[in-house]
Amino acid sequence: MKIDIVTLFPEMFEGAFSHSILKRAQAKGHANIHLHNLRDWSSSKHKNVDDYSYGGGAGMVMMVEPMVRCIEELQSKTSYDEVIFLTPDGELLNQKIANQFSTKQNLLIICGHYKGIDERIRTHFITREISIGDYVLSGGELAAMALTDAIVRLIPGVLNDETSALSDSYQDNLLSPPVYTRPADFRGWKVPDVLLSGNDKEIAQWRYEQAVERTRQRRPGMLGVDHESTD
Ligand code: ADE
Questions:
Q1: Is residue 159 included in any domain, yes or no?
Q2: Would you give the DSSP letter of residue 221?
């Protein structure tokens, strides 16, 4: 998969993209991630990319012209499945959306800043608008990192058996069950006996029940009829 990201702050991505699973996914060629600095498409002497909001009001708005020049140049080289804009008023990101995006070949991700981007960019170029939560970040960069991570880890081959996404919270419409590692007894806080029993069937049953219970307590809205509690 190829992911192009347009941002005013490409350096912000360096740490997030050069460690752990995102690093490995790129090294193995599963994800080709390219960062593009929007200022490179500014035609002004001082590389301006924002301007005052028509109608007044606080905050600057990202200008239509540099962004359109940037998107059109990128689109002339790559045919994108989606042009995604990160914005707090977008569709709330969830595992289903991450799964959908992970099946695509080419994604273009646009990070906004300041008070927002000129609405004409959204109208004419953006195909999906995504929010990572009902709160406002200072820009789309952190949201783009979260989205990219959620997508890339789902690309076949990126995770190995041990880190398989199949056991992730949300993947079955259930949160994950509790996990433990050695020692089996720490300050008298014991690991549940069943996990030490070696009985795979009982362990699987325990994990399922714990996952259902955790989901019932924390995200009851996720529970479909299949997982409905009987108590
Ligand atoms: N940009 C600013 N806040 C955001 C959010 N919550 N989600 C996505 N993009 C954003």
A1: no
A2: G
Q: Which atom of ligand 1 is nearest to the CA of 132?
A: 7
Instruction: List pLDDT tens digits, range 84-113.
Output: 999 999 999 999 999 999 999 999 999 998
Q: Are residues 123 and 74 in the same domain?
A: yes
Atom 7 of ligand 1: nearest residue by CA position: 131
Conformation bin of residue 188: beta by default, left when phi > 0, alpha when psi is -120 to 50: left
Give the residue ranges of DSSP H helices in 78-132. 95-102, 119-124
Number of domains, the chain? 2
Pocket test for ligand 1, best of 62, 136, 149 (most atoms within 8 A of CB): 136
- Of all residues in the chain, the percent with pLDDT exceeding 90 is 89
Same domain, 137 and 184: no
Q: What is the pTM of this model?
A: 0.93
**Is 24 among the domain residues?**
yes
Task: State the residue range of the domain holding 68.
Answer: 2-152
